[in-house]
Amino acid sequence: MKVLFATTVFCFFFFVNYAQQKPILLKHVTIIDGNGGKPLADADVLIKGDSFAGIGKNLEADNAVIKDMTSKTIMPALISGHSHTGNITGTQSNAANYTRDNLLHHLKRYEQYGVGALLCMGTDRPLIFNGFRDSSVAGLLPGARMYSAGFGFGMPGNPPAAAFGINHTFTSGTDPEIEKQVAVLAKLKPSFVKIWVDDFGGSNKKMPEDIYRIIIKEAHKHGLRVASHVYYLEDAHKLIDAGVDVLAHSVRDKEVDDALLKKMKEKNIVYIPTLTREIFEFIYAENPAWINDDFFKAALEPGVYEMLTSPEYINNIKNSPGYVRNKKGLEIAIKNLKKIYEAGIMVVMGTDSGATPARAEGFAEHLELELMVSAGLTPLQAITISTKNAAKFLSCNKDYGTIETGRKADFIVLSGNPEKNILNTRNIEVVWKNGEEVKH
Ligand SMILES: [Zn+2]
């Protein structure tokens, strides 16, 4: 009875809220709708309740609140197809930081940067499956909408998985635990199953093919798609042959070959370049142009800016065995993105933001746009990858990812037009969610 009563009040509250809300009419705005076509200049947008109710020229609506948007551009809220959230506090990243309050803190930050939704790629813990994830996706909690790949599968001591306290490991392809663990994960209704297939520069044992073959098979039995961390071209080939659905990072050791492009196209493989992940591994040693920008600094936890700019941190990067490898990896990844995009393969924006304090949440997604453009894509192509394609990837494209009549009004208002300069995605005036301006 109590539960029923609470539900009634809850629904009534939302009903009243939307019913009292006047329509909103944005006038004279430039629209980048996420579909990739030429932006619509001097257009009007009508918002009713939480959705777009009309888009065109000279729109009118009774009782509407009119906002003059001359010189402003709007675009759909960004969606990251590969992030990790809830694990960072200050300069530390670990499983103990993963609390409800910390998740909300980070999701709000993403939202301030115009990231309307993200997929947390395999580092989630039970607390989000008790309503948190579904409430977040429905927009009932503050911040970016949080989709989840639940807990991923790696190898014992696997660097990323172990850092987040994710320790589901298997001994071989005949280990009965595979079937059991995938079944447990399936009950949580994750958006994807995440696996890590990498030797991390030779520091860790790579997941053998017989194990990931069975994980993929079991996941598919439950109707779940599998996204793999990947580094090597050879593994990309083997993973696709084993039925993987998503390459969740760039191929970084070699340029992709025609055989891989053919396979990816035929099997509708999704490719998430995470170029930002590569650059964050070495760029702090090279005094990047944005290091003192407030737009960057505001994305960091307390103490992180001081850490990243300290001589000790910079020396550690320069002397790390991965320094040259990471730089080279980014160069190859940039070439591969261009090849893969031009082959007509579905590319989705992802960053690996939030995995470490150096991978600045929110800022990373704008840097990824810039890097995609540096790879030779147009700003509008990079935006579509980061909105429409990402929404399709998360199966939420009926509601999000484009500015179209009937879609939910999650969008960003910019004071510059990114079609001309992709850096203009950083000139955020205000972020809208569910048809309302977000106030922090
Ligand atoms: Zn990741």
Instruction: Estimate the helix proportion, in percent.
Output: 25-40%
CATH topology of the largest domain: TIM Barrel
- Termini separation comes to 35 Å
CATH domain class name of the largest domain:
Alpha Beta
Bound molecules: zinc ion
> What is the typical, i.e. mean, pLDDT?
94
Radius of gyration: 22 Å
- General shape: globular
Kindly report the name of the CATH homologous superfamily of the largest domain.
Answer: Metal-dependent hydrolases
User: Please, how many domains?
Assistant: 2
Kindly estimate the percentage of residues that lie in beta strands according to DSSP: 15-25%
At CATH level 2, the architecture of the largest domain is Alpha-Beta Barrel
Task: Tell how many strands the DSSP assignment holds.
Answer: 17
Tally of contiguous helical segments: 16
Structural class by sheet pairing and helices = alpha/beta
Q: Biggest sheet, in brief?
A: 8 strands, mixed
Spans of at least 5 consecutive residues with low confidence: 1-16
